[in-house]
Write the structure tokens for this entry.
Amino acid sequence: MQKLINSKDGTLINYDISGNGTTALFFVHGSLGNLRWWDYQEQYFNDSYTVIRLDLGGHGKSGKERKTYTHTDYAEDIITVVNDLDSKDIILVGHSMSGPYVLEASLKLAAVKAVVLVDTVKDLDQIFTPEQAEKLMFSSYRQDFKLAVKELLPQFLFVKETPNDVKLRLQEEFLENSGEFASIVLEPLYKVDVQKLAKKITIPVRAINSDANPTSITNNQKYFKDFGCKIIQGTGHYPMLEKPEGFNLLLEEVLQEFKS
């Protein structure tokens, strides 16, 4: 069932809900994404869980009228939708850019029992700065976004095993946006003090990360009170799309920890 609700700043947020489990899985996409990135998970989990997927402000079918974007705006999108639900037992799942946003949102949501991070926050001792993001990504986005999507991003986002149809789909979706807009909606990620945020989190945090680059469980455990990680082999930055069956099995293993 598709629903619309106004976020705290009035931005219209699109989300959908299916299933009827007592525990709700709340899926949040990454940069330039949309709730359809979680189609395989919605199909797999809605027999046992209530499944909620949203389009963050500026993405998918949600409103795009914001002049500026902040990490708090994104967190409020999540908080708004959660507060519109009846469930008292929620697990937030955040991919890539949305990882810090689901963490931030969880601090204001008593119903959230755990957070699952997907290919994000891999090493909290290695923080990507706004200056690095501008130099390595955003300047290229603004100069020639199509070239960046075709030539630059694949070096960081995909591996040789990434299915070609996934590459083409994502590139087509990215190019529905301008380079300026892509920079604006992603910039807030690099302005979050993730180390400080992680230290505030008391609920369990689990990660499902690609093996394309390393995860430091030890470093992350210095910040999170309760952190664990599972590694999925042979995927790039989008394991839920690249290897949905394997990803779903790993997510199911994680969820078993939180069954009462």
Summary: The first strand starts at residue 2 and ends at 6. Residues 130-143 form the longest helix (14 residues). The two ends are 28 Å apart (CA to CA). The mean pLDDT is 96.
